[in-house]
Amino acid sequence: xxxxxxxxxxxxxxxxxxxxxxxxxxxxxxxxxxxxxxxxxxxxxxxxxxxxxxxxxxxxxxxxxxxxxxxxxxxxxxxxxxxxxxxxxxxxxxxxxxxxxxxxxxxxxxxxxxxxxxxxxxxxxxxxxxxxxxxxxxxxxxxxxxxxx
Length: 149
Fold this sequence. Notes:
By secondary structure, the protein is an alpha/beta fold. The chain has helices spanning 12-24, 42-55, 69-75, 89-99, 113-125, 132-147, and strands at 2-7, 28-31, 60-65, 83-85, 103-107. Strand 4, helix 4 (89-99) and strand 5 form a beta-alpha-beta unit. The longest helix has 16 residues, at 132-147.
């Protein structure tokens, strides 16, 4: 799977670990930065990842900032991106299976490396269920996104 990966300075170290983890698992990682712990603005990287997912070639995206919140908010401003802050295994797969989440946001100051890798694996391994109720709800979400509320 092609996975776009980005972070701000607070998420740089965890992003680096996740890039290696994903590459070792055979995924094609598109690292969109940042490239150090020097302060940068998370919206720039979150938007870049979301655009890579929405417009290709990435199939999924992962963004890492201090809490995950700011990056998720920024990613959701890109029409077609569906991002959530996730810090547990269940939500990582459920948000894909029920809500077709395509951009995972993680908080590097909230969770450790082991938990982050488990969450990423659950996110990458999940597929949208295509159950009628989830398709119906997703259509409503997409319409809200298209019309900006």
